[in-house]
Every structure is written in C-alpha cells, then in structure tokens.
C-alpha cells in the first residue's frame, strides 16, 4: 500500500499531505508509528529517484 501511495511523490509537500491523510485514517492503530515510518521512507526514496531522473534529463 505504501509504495502505491508514494510512487509518484515528487516533493516533501506532497509527501506531507500523504502522511497527514493516512494519519487521519490510521492514527488509532497500534502500528501507526511503523506505518508512518514506512510512508516517509518510501516517499523520500521516490523523491530522490525523481530528482535523479530530473538531473539525468537535464544533462
């Protein structure tokens, strides 16, 4: 689920909106901190990949 949510993430602002939306749905769960960590990690990976692609395209 996490990868599907964040696969097209390109900015930290987008990632924060995704995190907030998921928090509203799942913060009551005992495993929310782990879910949040996974969302942030996969989102940051997607952002890094996007930035790398942009640099490659500019060269």
Shape: elongated
Q: Which H/E pattern describes the elements?
A: HHH
Q: Radius of gyration over alpha carbons?
A: 13 Å
Helix content: over 70%
Model description:
There is one protein chain. With 59 residues, the protein is mostly helical. Helix content is 80%, strand content 0%. The protein has helices at residues 2-6, 12-26, 32-58. The longest helix is centred in the C-terminal third of the chain and has 27 residues, at 32-58. The protein is elongated, with a radius of gyration of 13 Å.
Short description:
The protein contains three helices and no strands.
Features:
mainly alpha; elongated; 0% strand; 59 residues; 3 helices
Provide the fold topology.
Blueprint (H helix, E strand, L loop, with lengths): L1 H5 L5 H15 L5 H27 L1
Helix pairs in contact: 2-3
């Amino acid at each position: 689920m996490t990868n599907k949510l964040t696969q097209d993430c390109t900015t930290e602002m987008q990632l924060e909106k995704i995190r907030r939306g998921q928090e509203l749905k799942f913060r009551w769960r005992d495993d929310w901190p782990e879910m949040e960590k996974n969302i942030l990690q996969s989102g940051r990976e997607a952002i890094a990949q996007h930035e790398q692609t942009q640099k490659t395209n500019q060269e």
